[in-house]
Amino acid sequence: MTVSVGTDTDAVYTMISNFVTQYNDAISQLNTQIGTAPDRDYPPLTDAQKAQMNTTDINNWNEKAEQGILL
After folding, report:
1. Which of 14, 21, 39, 47 is the most exposed place for a label (fewest CB within 10 A)?
2. Is 65 exposed, middle or buried (0-12, 13-18, 19+ CB in 10 A)?
3. What does the domain layout of the chain look like in residue ranges?
4. What are the φ and ψ backbone dihedral angles of 2, each rounded to 5 degrees?
5. Residues 5-22: tens digit of each pLDDT
6. Rounded distance, CA 2 to CA 54, Å?
7. What is the DSSP-derived secondary structure letter of residue 70?
8. Phi/psi at 67 (5° precision)
9. Which of 32, 31, 36 shows the shortest CA–CA distance to 68?
10. How far apart are CA 4 and CA 55, in angstroms?
């Protein structure tokens, strides 16, 4: 009986390459979030302001208000 062990270097290379690509994408997204400046024209909404707006407008406002929160 003969037992042999081999390595699949192509699979290892592909796994490492995919990891590096995903890591670089994550770092790029983080840098984009960190570097985004806040828009001071969109302060958090009060309850009275929310009562006068529809859900879509509230969501859009909150999205702009939260922009640049990491900076």
Report:
1. 47
2. middle
3. 17-65
4. -125, 130
5. 778 899 999 999 999 999
6. 73
7. T
8. -65, 130
9. 36
10. 65
3-class DSSP assignment, residue 2: coil
pTM over 0.70: no
C-alpha distance from residue 44 to each of 31, 32, 53 (Å) = 24, 22, 13
Q: Is 39 helix (H, G, I), strand (E, B) or coil?
A: coil
- Residue 68 — very low, low, confident or very high, per pLDDT cuts 50/70/90? confident
Q: Do 68 and 39 touch, CB atoms closer than 8 A?
A: yes
Q: What is the residue whose two structure tokens read 């509230």?
A: 58
The Cα 57–Cα 35 span in angstroms is: 25
